[in-house]
RNA sequence: GCGGGCGUAGCUCAGCUGGUAGAGCCCCGGAUUGUGAUUCCGGCCGUCGCGGGUUCGAAUCCCGUCGCUCGCCCCA
């Protein structure tokens, strides 16, 4: 094992056996967003470091110690994106997408954070992102959550619950924060080391401390809900009402805060107990100030991100199967002339039956070993062509599943015969079907 | 950044209190002529993570190191 080239820590290869789940998630998301009228947008993996400092917050853990930042050859400080929203907002402003118009968008791809890897947390991880720009009412808050809820249904995920909260406006939050700091200052003795640190950096995070010894002090702290500004309170009440009307079960969690500075008003998080300590599966919220903060016209916005690794983990933990795609036909080619004819025969089958899958044997091998490969491939049918068959212009079609019957078939009738055996329709077009 | 657990064939693992490695799977070949999944036979596969120490002798003990993993933190 020595001197072996290894992947970078926390950046995982996705081997073929994992891909069926990933493809299921990605395909589902793609049709899901289309059904809600959300359009896909793609932005670079690398942005100016400044963008993330200004959006996520300079004093957040993400920016302070988790970003992959570097200087490029021109001397600019760039960073691999630790999340998608900042880049999306930047792109929307830059291309005038928010000028007198609303946008409902989604994107997906890898994100990067230099954290200690553990279950459900990796240095390169993958998110699907949903964002709605220009809608200020709580109706769209509910819509984006509906999208996530439908995705769980599509994927058969049940072990998740929704928690919601409101952070109010930056002004009301600033006032509340001062109260909170004052309270915890008075109870300094009850705080653990982490919370003392948070008291300086992000006091609201003390509220979601997992330390049991802290719970009493936290319970006595002023609640954010009691200090919301009237508009935010009305927004939140309407939001909860609409959520209920939309039939989405939720619970209000006054301790739900977010790690990114840009959130305002509605925040929410889907959590699970099935994935160990990394329990957030999908989370998001409103960020009404961010667009203006990054230089765009003032534009209300809301969005969420989900972690694909965690979604896949949930499906696997629940025992959901995701079947690998399997070719319908395995082409056994025995002998020189058969090998020579085989490539063209395979192409004709693919023309006639696009999507069915025709796996041609490559690299020779005895008939026996080719039959073994045919069986292993999972194919329904083995199409056996040897020099004898070539000589008489036919092929042997053998069923590999169920009754192992075998029949001879003239080469020119192969597409029809195979289509019939597979219960598929022939491609009517004469080209390659694209 | 801080703790715990673990590192033996491609994979899953066995190897008790030290005597220089084993199984299953996979892969390849064979068991009558050109036909798979079962069965049988054979073959392939390791500097026991790496470095050092103790010892006549270490995969087995000790130290260090790297890696993986789980938790803290953070968060999707």
Kindly report the CATH topology of the largest domain: BirA Bifunctional Protein, domain 2
> What is the class of the largest domain in the CATH system?
Alpha Beta
> Could you name the CATH homologous superfamily of the largest domain?
Bira Bifunctional Protein, Domain 2
Radius of gyration: 28 Å
Ends distance: 46 Å
Number of helices: 15
Q: Percentage of helical residues? A: 25-40%
- Uncertain spans: none
Sketch the major β-sheet.
8 strands, mixed
Q: How is the largest sheet built, in terms of strand order?
A: 1-5-6-11-10-9-7-8
Shape: elongated
- The CATH architecture of the largest domain: 2-Layer Sandwich
Helix/strand class? alpha+beta
Number of strands: 16
Mean pLDDT: 91
What's the number of structural domains? 2
Description:
With 434 residues, the protein is an alpha+beta fold. The protein folds into two domains: 19-169 and 229-317, BirA Bifunctional Protein, domain 2; 329-422, Anticodon-binding domain (Rossmann fold, 3-Layer(aba) Sandwich), CATH 3.40.50.800. The protein is built from 15 helices and 16 strands. The chain has helices at 19-36, 49-56, 61-66, 85-94, 138-155, 170-186, 193-201, 215-219, 230-245, 290-293, 308-317, 336-352, 367-377, 387-392, 414-422, and strands at residues 39-40, 46-48, 69-71, 77-80, 103-112, 124-133, 161-166, 251-252, 264-271, 280-286, 301-307, 329-334, 358-360, 381-386, 394-399, 406-410. The chain has an eight-stranded mixed sheet. Strand 9 and strand 10 form a beta hairpin. Helix 1 (19-36) runs antiparallel to helix 5 and helix 5 (138-155) runs parallel beside helix 9. The longest helix is centred in the N-terminal third of the chain and has 18 residues, at 19-36. The protein starts with 18 loop residues before the first helix and ends in a 12-residue tail after the last helix. The mean pLDDT is 91. The protein binds one RNA strand of 76 nucleotides through helix 3, strand 6, strand 10, strand 11 and helix 11.
């Amino acid at each position: 094992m020595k001197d072996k080239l290894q992947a970078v820590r926390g950046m995982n290869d996705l081997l073929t056996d994992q891909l069926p789940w990933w493809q299921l998630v990605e395909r589902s998301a793609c049709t899901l967003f289309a059904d809600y009228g959300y359009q896909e947008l793609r932005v670079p993996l690398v942005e100016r470091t400044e963008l993330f400092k200004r959006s996520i917050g300079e004093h957040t853990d993400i920016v302070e110690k988790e970003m992959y930042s570097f200087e490029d050859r021109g001397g600019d400080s760039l960073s691999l994106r630790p999340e998608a929203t900042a880049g999306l907002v930047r792109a929307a402003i830059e291309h005038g997408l928010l000028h007198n118009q609303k946008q409902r968008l989604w994107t997906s791809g890898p994100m990067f954070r230099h954290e200690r890897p553990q279950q459900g947390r990796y240095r390169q991880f993958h998110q699907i992102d949903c964002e709605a720009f220009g809608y200020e009412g709580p109706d769209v808050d509910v819509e984006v959550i509906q999208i996530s809820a439908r995705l769980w249904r599509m994927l058969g995920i049940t072990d998740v619950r929704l928690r919601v909260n409101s952070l109010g406006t930056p002004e009301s939050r600033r006032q509340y924060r001062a109260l909170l700091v004052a309270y915890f200052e008075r109870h300094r003795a009850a705080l653990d080391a982490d919370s003392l640190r948070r008291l300086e950096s992000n006091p609201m995070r003390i509220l979601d401390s997992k330390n049991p010894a802290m719970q009493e002090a936290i319970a006595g702290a002023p609640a954010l809900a009691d200090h919301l500004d009237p508009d935010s309170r009305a927004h939140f009440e309407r939001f909860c009402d609409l959520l209920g009307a939309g039939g989405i079960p939720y619970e209000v969690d006054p301790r739900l805060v977010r790690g990114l500075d840009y959130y305002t008003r509605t925040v929410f998080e889907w959590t699970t107990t099935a994935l160990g300590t990394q329990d957030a599966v999908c989370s998001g919220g409103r960020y009404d100030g961010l667009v203006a903060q990054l230089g765009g016209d003032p534009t209300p916005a809301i969005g969420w991100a989900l972690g694909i690794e965690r979604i896949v983990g949930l499906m696997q933990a629940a025992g959901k199967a995701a079947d690998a795609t399997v070719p319908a036909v395995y082409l056994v080619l025995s002998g020189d002339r058969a090998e020579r004819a085989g490539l063209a025969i395979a192409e004709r089958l693919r023309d006639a039956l696009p999507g069915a899958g025709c796996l041609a044997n490559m690299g020779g091998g005895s008939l026996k070993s080719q039959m073994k490969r045919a069986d292993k491939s999972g194919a329904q049918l083995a199409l056996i062509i040897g020099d004898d068959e070539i000589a008489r212009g036919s092929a042997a079609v053998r069923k590999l599943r169920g009754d192992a019957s075998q029949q001879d078939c003239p080469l020119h009738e192969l597409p029809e015969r195979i289509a019939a055996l597979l219960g598929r329709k022939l491609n009517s077009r004469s080209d390659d079907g694209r």
